[in-house]
Design brief:
Length: 156
């Protein structure tokens, strides 16, 4: 009876040990996977300012001058070059799991948006994004930088 009790105890210890090993293996596998997915996080974050600057540069060129190659050929060429650079950067972002988000009309989500201000706008629903100051980005479906937005508030 004593030996059976000891065998039962040792068997229990063995099963617990095997379960612990399996848990450790699973956790290590998850950690390696996360490390692979998010290894470029700090590098990606540092490039977001460059993406913002390219977007601002494109927005700074008046729409009527963007295609006026007869009167402003240098500006048209510069605009096209900046647009190509931004497009290449966005493709590189997407290939590495970095996606831009934040659109006008989206429902405000505090997990994805950072409200910089509220304003009244009768043409939009309250609690939605009305203006975007900076686009947000996700890295493999995890928010890397929240979108900086203006939110439509209820009219008084």
């Amino acid at each position: 009876a004593r030996l059976e009790k000891e065998v039962k105890s040792l068997k229990d210890q063995l099963m617990r040990s095997l379960a612990e090993q399996e848990n450790t293996r699973r956790i290590a596998k998850r950690d390696v996977s996360d490390a692979k997915q998010f290894a470029i996080k700090s590098f990606s974050k540092s490039l977001l300012d460059s993406a913002d600057n390219l977007e601002r540069a494109l927005d700074a060129v008046p729409e009527d001058l963007r295609t006026d190659s007869e009167n402003h050929p240098v500006l048209v060429t510069l605009y096209e070059g900046i647009k190509m650079t931004e497009s290449g950067l966005n493709k590189a972002f997407e290939m590495n799991g970095l996606k831009r988000f934040g659109g006008i009309g989206e429902v405000f989500d505090p997990n994805k948006h950072e409200a910089l201000f509220e304003y009244a706008d009768p043409s939009r629903d309250a609690g939605t994004v009305g203006q975007i100051m900076k686009s947000g980005f996700t890295l493999n479906d995890r928010v890397l930088r929240p979108a900086e937005v203006g939110v439509v508030k209820k009219e008084d």
